[in-house]
Queue: 3 jobs
Job 1
Amino acid sequence: MSLLEVSNLTAGYGIVQVLFGLDFRVEAGEAVVILGANGAGKTSTLRALSGMIEAQGSIRVDGVEFGKHRPEKLCAAGVAHVPQGRGTIVDLTVLENLRIGAYSRKDPDVESDIAMWFETFPRLGERSDQLAGSMSGGEQQMLAIARAFMSRPKLVLLDEPSLGLAPLVTREVFTKVRELVDSTGTAVLLVEQNANLALDFASRAYVLEAGRIVSSGDSADLRGDESIRRAYLGGA
Amino acid sequence: MSEVFNLFMIGLGNGAIYSMIALGLVVIYRSTGLLNFAQGEMAMFTTFLVWTLSELGWPLPLALLGGMVLGFLVGALVHQVIVRPVGDPHEKPLAVVIVTIGLYLGIHALAKLIWGTTDQDLDKLFGGGQVDLFGTKVAWQKLGAVFVLGIEALVFYFIFQKTKIGLAMRAVASNPESAGLVGVPVTKVLMIGWGLAAALGAVAGTFLAPSSAVSPNLMQLALIYGFAAITLGGFDSFVGAVVGGLTIGVLTDVLPYFDDNLGDFASKMPLAPAFILILIVLLIRPQGLFGTKRVERV
C-alpha cells in the first residue's frame, strides 16, 4: 500500500479543466517529483490534492480515501503543503510561524522540535523574533519548509521551491530538503520546473504536459529523456 | 485648573468608550484584515440585548454578561450566515467590506423592527455616584469605564499574543491559505473573531447608552470616533486602540475650553474633528502610532 495513491485525478477552475485523469503514487519515505513547464498543471495538482480547488478522482492517504475535504483535514492525515510563493505568514515572527506549524499537534515536544529546526537552519534561529515578511526569499522558503515539517507529516507537498530564488540558494534549499527526507523518513512530493535539480533530488519522476502525465520512471532513466525536452519545448 | 481636570476626566470617560469600540474593530481587523463597518450597529444590537435582559429584571452587571454571551452568538451567527458565504476576505476584500456596510443597514433596520424607535433608558453600570479626586468631583461611571477598558485591553492582548487561538487568529488574518494548510480551522477562527467583536460591542454600548439612550442610533457618532481612534492608534494594535480612543476623548472635551471657536465648531459639526484627525494621521503616519508597518520582501 502506497502512502499516497492518486488515480484518475481531474480538476479545473470553473469550466476550464486543467488536469485530465492523473495517476501517480508516493511511497513512504520517498522523494518524487512532478516535472512540467509553466502552465502544465503542477501547482493545480498539489492544490487539488489539498482540496484547495475542486477535484474528482481518488486520493488515498495510507489507503484511506479522501473524498471532498478541506485543507485542514489533510493536515490531520499527515500531509503538509508548502504552497507556491512560499506561503510564510509574513505578519508573524519566525518563531510564531514554526509554532503555528504545530497547531494540530498535541504532544509536548513542540518546543524541542523548534530548537531542532533552529539548529538545522541557524539563520532562522538568529532571527526568531523577526517578522517572517522581512526575511530574504531563501530564508522564507526555508521557514515555509520548516513550518510544514513542524506538523510531523508523513508527506510534504512542495510547490516549486526554486521560484524566485537565485540558483545557488535553490541548490541549498534542495540539499537541505534532501537531507530532511533522509534523516526524518518523511516523503516529499515536489512539483518543479527546474528538471536538472529536481531529478538530482528525487528518486522517481513524472512528467506533466498540458494536464496529462506523459511519462514516468526512475530519475536516472528519465534524465535526457525525449519526453522532458518535449514537455518543455512543445511537441514536435 | 480644576475645570480643566474635570473636563479631562470627562474626556477620559468618553474616550474609554471610543477605545472599547476601537478594540472591537481591531479584533475584526486582526482576524480578517478588514474594517468592519457594522461594528457600531453590532454594538447597538447587543446593547439592546443587555437592555432587554435588564427589563426582564436581571441586575445590570448580570444583564451585561448575558448580553455579551448572546452578542458572541450573534456575531458568530452573522459571520457564518452572512459574511462567510461571500467568500474569503483576502480574495474578495471589497465584497466583504460592502457586505459589512450592508450589515450596517440591515442590523439598524432589524433593531428598529424589534425594539422600535423609542429611546429607552439604561442605568449606569457604576451608579450615579461621584468621587472626590484632587478636589474635583468625578463620576464613578467615568472611572469605571476606564477601569473596564483596561481589563478588556489586557484580556485581548493576552488572548492574541499568548494563546494558541490568538496565534491562529493572527495567522488567519495574515495568510488564511497557509494557516489552513497547517491545520488551523480557518472558518472557526473567523467565527470566534466576529463573536468576540460583538461581545465587546455590548460593553461599549452599555457604557455609552446612559448618557444618551438605547436606540437604533446609539452608535452612529461613536463609531466614527472609534474609526478615528484606530486610525490614530494603528488598525492592528490593541494598545493603539486604547491610547487612540482616550486621546480623542480627552482632546474633544478639553480643547474647546481653551478656544470657544473650537467648541462652537465641534458642536455644530460633531463629526468633523474625528474626520480631520483621520485625514491628518493617514497623511503623516498611515500605520498610526502603534500599528505595524507592513514589511514584505519579495
Note: The radius of gyration of chain B is 19 Å.
Job 2
Amino acid sequence: MALKKSQQTPADAKDERHLPRDLSGLLTALNAAEPMARRWAARDLAEHPEASAALVERMRIETEPSVTQVILTSLTRLGDEIAVAGLTDCLRSEDAMLRNAAIEAMKQLPDEVAPIMGQLLEDPDPDVRIFAVDVLESLRHPRVEDWLIRVIAEDPHVNVCATAVDLLGEIGSERAAATLRALKSRFADEPYIQFAADLALKRIGAD
Amino acid sequence: MAVQKSISEEDFRTFREFFYRKTGILFEDSKRYFVDKRLLDRMNATGSETFRGYFTMMRFQTSGEELQTLINSMTVNETYFFREEYQFRCLVDSVLEELVERRADDSSPIRIWSVPSASGEEAYGIAIYLLEYWPRIADLDVEIISSDIDTDILAQARRGRYGERSLQQLPLSLRNKYFHRDGDHYRVDDVLREAVDFTRANVTDAAEMRGYRNFDVIFCRNLLIYFDDLSRKQTAESFYDALNPGGFVCLGHSESMSRISSLFRVRKFPEAIVYQKPWEAR
C-alpha cells in the first residue's frame, strides 16, 4: 500500500450518467429522485437558454437546499427575463437562505435587474424594498446612487431609509448631501437616522 | 499644477471594509502603505482624480474588470514546497484520520485533488508529506490528482524540475531524499513523478468538471480569490459533487467558503479551518 497512480480517469466518470445530456434528458433529470442527478441537471441546464422556466418551476418545489443553490447559480448564468423574475420572487420567500441567495444572485445581473429596480423599490412590502437596497450594495450599475437618493427622499419606512443611508455613506457623493440633510428633518425623532446620516455626510465630506 | 492624489484614513477604512466583504482579505493598519500604494497606482492607471471617484467606478463598473485588476494587485501569487504547511499537518493529523475512521472496511484508495497544480509544488508536497508524516500510508492506497487550465504549466509540473527558491521551506533531509541535483536545479524523484497524475481541467467549466468525482480531499488554495462571485459559487458547487460525502475542501488562508456557498460545513481543527461536505449529503 502506498501512493498510486489514479486508475479512474475523468473520462471514465463521465459514463456514470443515465440520461442523455440534451435539453429533454436534462429536463427529465431535473425531476429525478436523486438530488445529485437534479444538481447535475440544473448545472448543465445553464447551457440551455430555454431552460429558465423549468428551473424556476423546480426551484419553487425543490426541498433539497444543495439543489436549490445550483438552480440559483444556473438562473444567474442564464440571466434572462424569466430567470430574473424567478429570482425576484425569492425576495418574498420566508426561507432566509433562499432570499439571501437570490439577493447575491441578483447582484451579479446589473443590466437585467436595472429595468425592474424602480418597481422593486416601490414594492408595497417594506421588507422587499430593504432587500432591493441590499441588492444595490454590490450591483455594478451607474444608477445605484440615484436609486439610493430616491429611496431616502421618498420612502416612508424608517428601516428602508436606514439601509439606504448606510450604503450611501459608502458610495454616495456630494450629490446626496442635500437629500441626506432633508432625511434628517423627515425622521427628526429617529436617533439611528440622525447618526447614520451624519456619518454618511462625514464620509462624503459634506458635514 | 497637478494635485497630489492621496488616500485619507477614512478612505482606507471604507476600502478595507469593502475589500474584506468581497474577498475575505483583511488589511491591518500596518498594511496601510501597501494598500495605499496599490490604490494610488490603480487610480493613476484609470485616470481617477479622487479615491471616491475611483472607488465608485470600481464597485459599479458593469464588467467588474477593475475590481479584478485591483484584487490581482492586492494579492501575491507565488508557490513553493510546503507553502502554508499547517494545512498539510491538518491533512495528516485530523482530516485523513477522520476519513479513515469513517471508511471502516472500505479499501478503495483515498483520493486527493490538488487544483490548480501550478508547477506541481503542492501535489508533490502533499505526496512527500504523506510519505513522511502519515504512517497509515503503509496500509492504505492514496491517489493524488493535480489539475490546471494551463497546459504549459502542466508540462512543467510533470517534469518536476525546480529552482532553489521553490525548495526554500523544505527541510534539507527531505530535499536530499526526494530530489536529485540537475545542474542549478533540482529534479523531483521518479517515485513521486509516477505517483501524481496531472490533468488539464477548467474548474469553472461544468462540462469538464463532470469527470472529476469521488474525491476525499480537495486542495484549492489561492485560486478562487481570482474569480468573480458567480464563478466562485459555480466552482464550489462543482467541488461539492466532486467530493464523496464527508469529503473536505482546503482553501487558502485568506479564503472562506462561508462567503461563497452554504453547502459546506466549517470544520475547525487544531491546525486549520477546512470545509466539509456533510456525511449525510446525497
Note: The domain at 85-276 of chain B is CATH 3.40.50.150 (Rossmann fold).
Job 3
Amino acid sequence: MAAASGTHTNPGVEHRALLAESVAHFVARATDIARVRRLRGSPAEHDRAAWTKMAGLGWLGILVPERYGGLGLGLTEMAIVAGGLARGLVPEPLNAAGVLATTALVAGDNEALKREQLPRMVAGTVLPALAWQERAATLDAGAIACRAGPFEGGFRLNGAKRFVAGAAQADAFLVSANTPSGVAIFWLPRGAAGVELALEPLADGRSFGTLTLRDALAPAAQVVASGAAAAEALALALDRAAAIASAELHGVMSRALEMSLEYLRTRVQFARPIGSFQALQHRAVDLHIQKELASAVLEDALAALDREPAPAARAALASRVKSRCSDAALRITRETIQLHGAIGFTDEYDAGLYLKRALVLAAWLGGGAAHRRRYAALEGVNRES
Amino acid sequence: MTDWNAMSDEAFRREMRAFIEAEYPRELRYILRRARWDEMKGWWGKLYGKGWIAPNWPRAEGGMGLDAGKMVIYLEEMERYGVARSPDQGITQVGPILMQFGTEAQKRHYLPRTLSGECIWCQGYSEPNAGSDLASLQTAAVPEGDHFVVNGQKIWTTLAHDATHIYLLARTDRQAKKQQGISFLLADLKTPGITIRPIRNIAGHEEFCEVFFDRVRVPRENLVGKLNEGWTVAKALLSFERLNIGSPRRPQYALRRLEMLARAKGLLDDPGFVDRFIALKLDLEDLASLYGRFVGRAKRGEPLGEDVSMLKIWAMETWQQLTELLIEAGAEEGVIAGVREIAGVETDFLSPFYYARPATIYGGSSEIQRNILAKYVLKLPS
C-alpha cells in the first residue's frame, strides 16, 4: 500500500497538497472548538455525521489498498490528515479506526473478510476498533492472556481487553487472543453475545473501552488473521498507529505553541508585551526547538516507514518518533499553561484542552520512556526485551 | 581540473576516504583540542598538493568548487576519520570574504598565499568589552595618510600565536551608531606594535590569545569592502558556519566513546544509566534529522535563514550533556586527569568535557542564538 508514495513522486506531492488543503478546509468549516467542548464527556464522544463527511473526503481509505475501495496511500498522507485534524482537536477517531484497526485487517490473511468489511470501513458505515491490549505499560502485542478455544468449527473467546481507543461508537472489535495454535485476531460485532463493553473516561473527554469476553463466539469466517500473519498484523498496526499518534501530537503541540507565541506578543505587563522578556523568549525558543525536532523526526520516520522496512527497523522508527513527539507535546502544552498564567488554567480557555489531548495521546501506545526502553532494546543497548 | 561535482557521491566519498586514510597522521586522529599549526602543516601540504585544501572555494580560485551535497560528504569524511581542524580561518572565512568583497589586488595577493599556507589567518573580532555585544567594539582605526593607525585590544583570538595575519573589525567612525562605524581590515601580525599573549584555558591548553594593537600602521589597501561597512562583510558567512557547527558528527563521536565505555564497565545493565544514555542517543538522532533538513535547503540553493541557529544550540548542548554523562559514568575514575585504561578501553574522561565546554560560548553563545531565534523566527517583540 505504501508503494504509491514511493514510486509516483509527482502524484504523491499532488495528493499531499490536496490533502493538506482539504484538511485545512475541514478544520475551518466543518468543526470548531465549541463542537469539541460539546462532545467531550458525552456518551457519543464524536459525531457520526462528521465521520461520514471524513469518509466522503476519502480519509478513511488512505491506508486501504485500491482493490478494497481505498486510496492506497501511505503514512505520510495519513499524517497530513491526522496532524491537521489534531490541531483542531477533532474528536473523531481517525487513528484508532482508520489506522490501528484498519491496518490490522488489511495486514490480516482473511481475504473474504477484507472484501466484505474494508469498503464499509472506507465508507464510514462500519467503524472498527482494535482491542489488543490487556495491561498498562506494554508495547508488546504478543502479551496476551485472552484465550480462544476451538468451538463448533469456530472459536470461543474468554478474557478482557483494556485501553481500547475509539470504542465508544465502534461497530466491531478486532480482538487478539491465543488459540491452541498461536495468536489470532477475531472480528466481533459490537453487542454480540458474550461481548461486554465498559468505558473509562479520559482526561480529554474521550474514553478507553474495556472489553470483557465471556464465551464470545467467533465463526472461522471472522478470523481476521492467525499465526505469524496475526502477530505481524498487530505489530504493524501498533507501529503505524504510534507514528500517526506522533503526527497528531505534532499537530497539538504546534497549535499550542502558536497560542503561546500569540499571547507573548500581545499580553502587556509592566507596560511591555511579556514576549519582550528574555526569560520568556528563551523558554519559547526551547519549545520551538522541540517542535522542530519533532517535525524533522516525524518527516524522516514517515518517509522511512512508507518504504516498509523490516519489523525491527520499523519498530525502532516508531519508537523514535513517538518518544520525541510525546515528550515534546507534553512539555509544550504544559508550558502553554504556564506562559498564559491564570487564564491558561481556566476551563474556558483552550490551552487546557490541548494539554489534556497531549496527555492522552502521549500515554496511548506508549509514552516517551516506554518507547526509549524499547528503542534501547532494539538497538542492542540493554538486555531488556 | 577535476569536476568533483560530476562524480557520483559514492566515488567521491571513496576517493576522499582513501586519501585521508593514507595521508592523515594517525597520532592526530580524534584529538580533543584545537590542533596547532606545527602539527597540521604537513597535512595541510598534502591537501594543498592534491588541490583539496579549499573545498568551498571555486575551482577558478584554486578550490574544489564543491556543491552543498559534496561539501557535506567532504566534512563527513574528515570527521569520520577524526581529522582535526586546521587553523583554517583563511579558507573558511577570509577567502570567501575576499571573493565577495575584496579588491582585485587583495584577491591576487592573498588568495594563493592563503591556499598554500603561507598566510595563516586568525580572527580579531571579540574584545574585552565586546563579546556577545560585538558591535560595541572599541579598537579604533584612524586614517592617517595612506594608512590606518590601529589602537586597541582583541581577545579570545584562537591560535593567534600560530597565525601570520589577522582579519579584524575596528571602529572607523566614533560618531556613527554601533554597527555602522565598523570596518573590516587585514593586518600582517609582524607589523610593529602588535603583541600576542596566549591565554591558558581550563583544559590547560593555550588555544586562544590576547592581541594588542599599539599604534599599528595598517595600509589603507588592506581595507576589505567599503569604509564603515565591515559589519556587513563579517556577517555574510555566519549562517553556513552555524550549519557546519550544528552537524551531529562531533557529538556522535562522543556518543560512541560513551557507549564503548559503558559497555566495558557494565553500565548498560543499570536501567538508570540506560535511560539517560538512550535519551541522549535519541537527542542526537533527532538532531541528525533536523540537520538533514537544513542540508537539504543548502543543497537546493535555498537561503538557510535565521532558524539555523537552533542547530547550533541543540548540537552543542547535546554534545555537552554527552561529555557530562561520560564523566559521571567514570565515577571516581572520571576525574583522573589524562588517558587511562578503564576495563580495556583507553579513556580520557576530562578532555571531551573541557573540549565541549566553550561550544555554547563561541560562534555566538547559546543565549545569543536564542535571542536571534526569538526575534527573527518567533517574531517576539523587543
Note: The first strand of chain B starts at residue 121 and ends at 124.
